[in-house]
Amino acid sequence: MNRHVLDAFAEVRQGFSVDRVIADPGLNSRFLDSCLRRGLTDQPVDLNLSLFNVRKRGGLPRSTRRTVFRNQDGFAFAAEIAIRSLERKHHTTLDRVLCDPSLTAEFDSVAMEIAPGFTPLEYRWAALCLRKNNRLKPEIVGRAVPTTTLGPMAVSTIDISQIPTQQGVYILTTRENVLYIGEARNLRARLKKHLEHSDNKLLARHIWEFGKADLLIEYHVLPPDTRTDVRRAMELELIRSRRPVFNIRR
């Protein structure tokens, strides 16, 4: 299989790297078609993962063309929210998301909802750059605890009465920054308090000054038997990795 995968990659790469062939919808489609013509009947996710694995073992020719997007600030934050949401929701990794067409489509959809107007390649490449720059360290506690993830959703579309009363952790963001991360024994009561008049003075002032039009909520419902110390450990891990504006760093 690896020989055919390498031949397919060499046929379509146009001088680009493995990352670009995986992340670029057009190049990836041609790569998968080339694999099919060579008799490979594996699922697309397995063919893409095989190409990643070959790259990790080394020995591939160096790429001769670079991929650079100069306006990444406009969509990198959306890519970070999208990949973090999928990592926690599906207990998966960036490599898996980029290799699995169904997960990639979900990633694109979340990123486009947050920062519309960019291409799928731009969102995907931004996520790869974040990892390269050590901005996507694994959130170990979150992967170890089963959660039900919802969002990110615009506050304007949320019916507070539909938010569960179970325990969990939550993330409040705008389309540019993570504002606040918290944990709660009752998610509905806690989020209702934030949206009416948060007891975090800086967050309350932000909502008063800028309103809720650009506010997004993501929350993770935890099993009923989750201990308080585990819930707080998840909150602390999220604060350290997401760098919210209005939390005190610990």
Briefly characterize the structure.
The chain is an alpha+beta fold and 250 residues long. It folds into three domains: 56 residues, no CATH class; 61 residues; 99 residues, GIY-YIG endonuclease (3-Layer(aba) Sandwich), CATH 3.40.1440. Helix content is 53%, strand content 10%.
Structure characterization notes:
By secondary structure, the chain is α+β, with helices and mostly antiparallel strands. It has three domains: 2-57, no CATH class; 72-132; 144-242, GIY-YIG endonuclease, CATH 3.40.1440. The protein is built from twelve helices and four strands; from the N terminus they run αααααααααβββααβα. The chain has helices at 2-12, 18-23, 25-37, 44-57, 76-90, 94-99, 101-114, 120-132, 140-144, 187-197, 201-210, 228-242; strands at residues 148-154, 168-173, 178-184, 216-221. The protein has a four-stranded antiparallel beta sheet with strand order 1-4-2-3, sandwiched between helices. Strand 2 and strand 3 (178-184) form a beta hairpin. Helix 1 crosses helix 3 (25-37) and helix 5 crosses helix 7. It is elongated and about 60 Å long.
Layout of SSEs?
Elements: H1 2-12, H2 18-23, H3 25-37, H4 44-57, H5 76-90, H6 94-99, H7 101-114, H8 120-132, H9 140-144, E1 148-154, E2 168-173, E3 178-184, H10 187-197, H11 201-210, E4 216-221, H12 228-242
Antiparallel strand pairs: 1-4, 2-3, 2-4
Helix pairs in contact: 1-3, 1-4, 5-7, 5-8
